[in-house]
Amino acid sequence: MGEFVIGATDFGIDPEAVIFDIVSADGAPDLLTVEFEGRQDDFDRILQDQREQWGWASFPPSFYLRDFPIPMAGPTGVVTVHLARNAYRTYEVALYLMEHNTVEATITINGGQRIEITGQVELLGNLTPFHINWVNPAPNQVL
């Protein structure tokens, strides 16, 4: 399925809500758009087990990044880009958990099918590590 980890808590990824799209245009950088939402079932279980840590949240976290320019993949098919903490000034990007929280991250895309986002999110005034890992399923794979 995938991982959407904040701190030490894995919220999972709702596969029905995933957007992972790379648009190519002649003579311009490729544009990356991704959206990930935590799974509601995982979130409900987390609230039962870790109410003290996450009880202030009403729903699972989500991450979005829209129309972010990335270089074309080289011969290995791997693209790595850095998402600066102030990227929200230019691009639509945030980790949403009760509010739009700023992030700084490294994004690695492998073959246009796998994405890994690793960085820090500012939650409640504290920098907290987060990690998203997603692989697009094969066309006939049931999630």
Span between termini: 7 Å
Indicate the structural class.
Answer: mainly beta
In the sheet with the most strands, the strands line up as 2-1-11-10-9-6
Number of domains: 1
- Weakly predicted, low-confidence segments: none
Strand content: over 45%
Shape annotation: globular
Portion of residues in helices?
A: under 10%
H and E string: EEEEHHEEEEEEE
Q: DSSP helix count?
A: 2
The major sheet is characterized as: 6 strands, antiparallel
Q: What's the SSE blueprint?
A:
Elements: E1 2-6, E2 9-10, E3 19-25, E4 28-37, H1 40-49, H2 51-54, E5 62-70, E6 78-83, E7 92-96, E8 100-101, E9 103-110, E10 114-123, E11 126-135
Antiparallel strand pairs: 1-2, 1-11, 3-4, 4-5, 5-7, 6-9, 7-8, 9-10, 10-11
Characteristic terms for this protein:
143 residues; mainly beta; 11 strands; globular
Descriptive overview:
- With 143 residues, the protein is mainly beta.
- The chain has one domain.
- It has two helices and eleven strands; from the N terminus they run ββββααβββββββ.
- A hairpin with a 2-residue loop joins strand 3 (19-25) and strand 4 (28-37).
- The longest helix has 10 residues, at 40-49.
- The model has no long low-confidence stretch (mean pLDDT 91).
Short description:
This protein has 2 helices and 11 strands; from the N terminus they run ββββααβββββββ. The protein has helices at 40-49, 51-54, and strands at residues 2-6, 9-10, 19-25, 28-37, 62-70, 78-83, 92-96, 100-101, 103-110, 114-123, 126-135.
